[in-house]
Design brief:
183 residues; Aminopeptidase; six-stranded mixed sheet
C-alpha cells in the first residue's frame, strides 16, 4: 500500500488491473475531445484496445500502475512507463519515468485525487531511485498544464501533427467574419 489519504486509498497494481481501467481511460479520452483542438479521434473501443496494448507493454517493461480507490470504487489511476536513460537531449539519470496516463473520474476532479496520485507516483519513483519525470499534456488541456506546473514541472517540448484522416468538417450555424463557417 502506497498511502491512504482521507477516504481515498492509493495502491500499486499490475497487469491484473488493466480491465478495470477502461471506464477511466474512456472518460479521459472523452475529456480530451472536449478540450483539445478539433481532430478525428479514435472511436472508444478502438482507443481502449490500443491503449490497453500500450499498457501491457509498458508494464511488462518495468512500468507500474497506481490505483486510487474510494471504498470499492476505482476513482483514478496513474500509469507510469520506466525508460532507460540518459535522455538524448536533456541531462537525466540512467532511468526516466513518463506518466503515460493520469485519469481521475469526472466526479472526483478538483477534489485532490490527482494530487494524491502524483504524490504516490513521486514516492514510488523515489523508492526506485528515479528523479526525472515527463508528463504529456494535450494542447488545450490548460487546467492539466497548470496542475503540473504547480508541481514544479514545466513545458519542454511541443508536438505538431498532420493526420491522414484530416480534421473534422466545420460545424454549421457558426459564422466568422465575412460569413465563413467557423469550427
Amino acid at each position: 500500500m502506497i498511502g491512504v489519504m482521507t477516504d481515498v486509498t492509493i495502491r500499486v497494481a499490475g497487469a491484473e488491473a488493466l480491465d478495470s481501467l477502461e471506464p477511466l481511460w474512456l472518460a479521459l479520452h472523452e475529456h480530451h475531445q472536449r478540450v483539445a483542438p478539433p481532430a478525428v479521434y479514435q472511436p472508444p473501443a478502438a482507443s481502449w484496445r490500443a491503449r490497453r496494448g500500450s499498457y501491457e507493454h509498458w508494464l511488462a517493461e518495468g512500468g507500474f500502475v497506481l490505483l486510487a480507490e474510494r471504498g470499492s470504487d476505482l476513482v483514478g489511476y496513474a500509469l507510469v512507463e520506466i525508460q532507460d536513460g540518459p535522455d538524448d537531449t536533456w541531462v537525466t539519470g540512467s532511468r526516466i519515468a513518463e506518466v503515460q496516463t493520469l485519469s481521475v473520474a469526472p466526479a472526483e476532479r478538483g477534489l485532490g485525487t490527482g494530487t494524491r496520485l502524483l504524490d504516490a507516483v513521486d514516492a514510488h519513483l523515489a523508492e526506485l531511485g528515479i528523479e526525472d519525470v515527463f508528463i504529456g499534456v494535450l494542447t488545450g488541456n490548460d487546467d492539466a498544464l497548470r496542475f503540473y506546473e504547480r508541481r514544479g514541472l514545466r513545458p519542454v517540448m511541443t508536438y505538431v501533427a498532420r493526420f491522414k484522416a484530416g480534421t473534422p468538417k466545420p460545424m454549421t450555424g457558426r459564422r466568422g467574419p465575412g460569413g465563413a463557417a467557423r469550427p
